[in-house]
Amino acid sequence: MNIDNTIKDLEEIALRVNDFILSHLNGNPHELYAASSSYIRSGGKRLRPYLVIKSCEMFGGNKDAAIPAAAAVELIHNFSLIHDDIIDNDDIRHGIPTVHRKYGLPVALISGDILFSKAFEVLSETSNLGLEDKIIKKMVSKLSSSCVRVCEGQAMDTAMAAYEIIPTTEEYLEMIGKKTAALFEVSCAMGTLSSSNSSDIDVDNLAIFGRHIGVAFQLVDDLIGVIGNTKVTGKAVGNDIREGKKTYPILLALKTANENEKNKIIKVFGIRTCSRDELDAAVGVISSLNIEGEVRDLAYYEMEQGTRLLKKYVKNEAKGALISSAKFIVERSL
Q1: Among candidate residues 227, 216, 228, the one with its CA nearest the CA of residue 173
Q2: Exposure of 300 in the CB half-sphere (CA atoms within 13 A)
Q3: How far apart are CA 75 and CA 112, in angstroms?
């Protein structure tokens, strides 16, 4: 499957998962559900649900049985986005105001809680689609564990931003392995479980594939965060610098920059009150350092570590889609 077909496939699955999620995000008070569904309505590629569906299909499963699991993962992801935006004091996501900016902090916090709760509610619907109780129990256990790891990763990220010590690459990778990759990992595991035709080894292999793809995703996402085009990505550029986030691209930039360039970055690094001009100057410096190649090389390495686990399986359309989606993740435009 080529990239164009992957994008079309992503869009089709996104529409179906969105419809399922939105059918469950309604009630009173209206403002609470409007806030909780804000990011779902604004777009997004739905990569995690896509991995759920394709992992299920790779083992001969019916995508209908995987829709609740796909929705559950996306609900958890959106819960984490709302809270992440609050922590990072971000103003824009997907090209629209962040939930706490539009609806206020109290409603944003509660809307995140609603999403978290709804994830497990919709997962329980899987019992109506022919999956055995023991399979659903495994799904709940894996999703719960991934939520713990996401929270641990967020705490590590916040701590890294607060400390003056520059983390090692290994420490950074451990952090994103929890904060981001945990949901990619559980997406592939739950999708494989949804097929009912897989073994424990299959679940483990696809989970490891997902973990590596999740790390690759975050590497490129962090690159977008410092030198991306907001009009293309819908993500605010420079916030990671302003918030003092010690992402791999920023660590590379500080390592590569000369003294004058480094001073321009440090001048705004972790300074929330810095001016837009000062922030733009730092972004310009980082863009000029040609760090993109090194970041993408590490992302490609993670992708290859993941896709090699799929080579042992018989070639089919879903397997091809998983490999193609991994390439799409790494090769995304800035």
Answers
A1: 216
A2: 7
A3: 9
Q: Two tokens at 265?
A: 């970055």
Total Cβ atoms within 10 A of residue 63: 18
Res 233: pLDDT: 57
Residue 165's alpha-carbon distances to 20, 109, 113, 315, in angstroms, are: 45, 31, 33, 47
pTM of model > 0.85: yes
SS (H, E, C) 128-156: HHCCCHHHHHHHHHHHHHHHHHHHHHHHH
- Residue ranges for the chain with pLDDT beneath 70: 1, 128, 230-236, 334
Provide the 3-class DSSP secondary structure of residue 96. strand
Tens digits of per-residue pLDDT, 215-260? 999 999 999 988 877 665 556 678 889 888 889 999 999 999 999 9
Domains of the chain (ranges; CATH) run 3-330 (1.10.600.10)
Q: What is the pLDDT of residue 79?
A: 97
Instruction: Provide the Cα torsion 82, 86, 88, 93; round to 10°.
Output: 40
Contact (Cβ atoms closer than 8 angstroms) between residue 187 and residue 51: yes
Other CB atoms closer than 10 Å to residue 333's CB: what's the count? 9
User: Concatenated DSSP letters for 5-65?
Assistant: HHHHHHHHHHHHHHHHHHHHS--SSHHHHHHHTHHHHH----HHHHHHHHHHHHTT--HHH
